[in-house]
């Protein structure tokens, strides 16, 4: 788990970049809070997207596997 000082530095950097990009003039504590809040929101959003991608990849893999089994069944086992 990152230390509080590390989070403050990352939060300050992220807040500085975000506030300058959005043309928002804020003081240093507000900039740090914006950066830390953005890191939390971005982290949750990224975890959600990765989880959804993982779930969707599992579904696609399962469908492809089932299709392969059906093909094998039709090709080699179920001959009329």
Question: What does this 3D model show about the protein?
Answer:
The protein has two helices and no strands. The chain is mainly alpha-helical. It has one domain. Helix 1 crosses helix 2. It is rod-shaped. The N and C termini lie far apart (62 Å). 8% of the residues are buried. The model has no long low-confidence stretch (mean pLDDT 83).
TL;DR?
The protein has 80 residues and is mainly α. It has helices at residues 4-21, 28-77.
* Gap between N and C termini: 62 Å
For the record, the count of structural domains works out to 1
Uncertain runs: none
Structural class: mainly alpha
Amount of beta strand = under 5%
How many strands, what sense, and barrel or not for the largest sheet? none
Separate helix tally: 2
Mean pLDDT across every amino acid position: 83
Helix-strand topology string: HH
Q: Measured on Cα atoms, how large is the radius of gyration? A: 24 Å
Shape: rod-shaped
Tally of DSSP β-strands: 0
Question: Helical percent range?
Answer: over 70%
Characteristic terms for this protein:
80 residues, mainly alpha
How do the strands and helices of this protein lay out in sequence?
Elements: H1 4-21, H2 28-77
Helix pairs in contact: 1-2
């Amino acid at each position: 788990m990152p230390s509080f000082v590390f989070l403050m530095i990352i939060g300050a950097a992220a807040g500085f970049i975000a506030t300058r990009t959005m043309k928002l003039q804020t003081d240093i504590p507000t900039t740090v809070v914006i950066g830390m809040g953005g890191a939390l929101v971005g982290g949750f959003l990224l975890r959600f997207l990765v989880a959804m991608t993982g779930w969707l990849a599992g579904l696609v893999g399962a469908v492809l596997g089932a299709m392969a089994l059906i093909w094998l069944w039709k090709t080699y086992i179920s001959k009329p």
